[in-house]
Design goal:
Blueprint (H helix, E strand, L loop, with lengths): L8 H7 L4 H7 L4 E3 L4 E4 L5 E4 L4 E4 L4 E3 L1 H8 L4 H9 L29 H10 L4 H9 L3 E3 L5 E6 L5 E7 L8 E3 L9 E3 L5 E5 L2 H13 L8 E4 L6 H9 L5 E4 L18 H15 L3 E4 L7 H25 L1
Helix pairs in contact: 1-4, 3-4, 7-10
């Protein structure tokens, strides 16, 4: 044991062998499927826990490490406090895989429903998305309804093979969101354009909402590209730029998490806008023209819903004026 260090190497090793995924669950993190190798923590600014390494990575702060690093970063402890805390936890120890077998399992898409009425109703009536945009994406097989009534969003590779699949529930009273097993988030959901500009959103619904807002403003929504990251990682943007080397301008429209909180209710950083500013700096250094367009509300879809409400209010007001005359 080093002088001044209250823990032996073995104790430090034991602390770092605490199962980080189970530890995160015990500390209130809600985990969802984040691909074949990781779990994603909801409302965390892009926090991922890796199944085969007992490590984490946080996109918003660009930090990573094992259990000790995680406690120091997210529970605001120093090294000694973190080790002591982990030694006292009831979380099981991590058992590394005895053999890492190369994964040859392909992404399986959910079975399609006989019709897409539920998804069309949800996206148009609840989310305010334009029907032409929905129809176009369905025709391109990037959007459909599964047998459970969920929205299914697809990202493809250059050969037209589905690589990414995200599900979104259509019952507003019971929110549901999930990525299919073996989804690869580096393949973006993409609304194709023909310009040299791409708008970057967090979710497929936000990308569709952005296109709808453009149409409501009298613009041609098919002019510019729009992609969704599916999280706060820029890996989907990297792949997109590789596929479209003619792109010169990137506009980041990530969520405005000004009311974000940690699991214990304490205020959290504005993950979406911090990520947007970080990405803007990175891609500016690579020669792209970049800008950040934060939503006025929480996300682009919330802005669209507010815009729809204002339009409806004006329409009702005009109708009442006509009737009164």
């Amino acid at each position: 044991m080093k002088k001044g260090m209250p823990f032996s190497k073995e104790q430090i090793s034991i602390a770092n062998r605490v199962n980080l995924i189970e530890f995160a669950k015990l500390n209130g993190y809600i985990l969802e499927n984040g691909g074949r190798r990781a779990y994603h923590a909801k409302q965390s600014g892009g926090l991922y826990f890796f199944k085969n390494s007992n490590k984490y990575y946080h996109f918003s702060t660009d930090t990573s490490g094992g259990p000790i690093d995680f406690v120091m970063q997210f529970l605001n402890m120093d090294f000694k406090e973190a080790v002591a805390y982990l030694l006292e936890t009831e979380s099981p120890h991590y058992q590394p895989p005895t053999q890492l077998i190369k994964d040859r399992v392909q992404l399986n898409l959910p079975e399609k429903a006989l019709n897409f009425r539920r998804v069309a109703w949800y996206l148009i009536q609840v989310r305010g998305i334009d029907s032409e945009i929905i129809s176009c994406l369905m025709h391109e097989k990037k959007l459909y309804q599964d047998k459970s009534g969920n929205c299914v969003f697809i990202g493809y590779d250059t050969e037209g093979t589905p690589k990414y699949c995200s599900l979104r529930g259509t019952r507003p009273e019971h929110p549901f969101k999930q990525d299919r097993p073996y989804s690869d988030k580096s393949y973006p959901f993409h609304i194709v354009g023909n310009s040299q500009k791409v708008y970057v959103c967090e979710s497929p619904i936000d990308a569709m909402s952005h296109a709808t807002l453009a149409k409501l403003a009298g613009q041609d929504w098919k002019t510019d590209h729009r992609i969704s990251l599916g999280c706060l990682s820029d890996q989907a943007l990297e792949r997109f730029l590789h596929y479209y080397p003619n792109i010169t301008e990137i506009v980041f429209c990530l969520d405005n998490d000004k009311h974000a909180t940690f699991q214990n209710g304490s205020p959290a950083p504005n993950w979406g806008q911090e990520a947007a500013l970080k990405f803007a700096t990175i891609y500016t250094s690579q020669g792209y023209a970049t800008s950040v367009e934060p939503p006025l509300g929480k996300d682009v879809n919330e802005d669209l819903c507010v815009r729809r409400f204002i339009i409806e209010e004006r329409t009702w007001s005009l109708e009442e004026d006509v009737l009164e005359r």
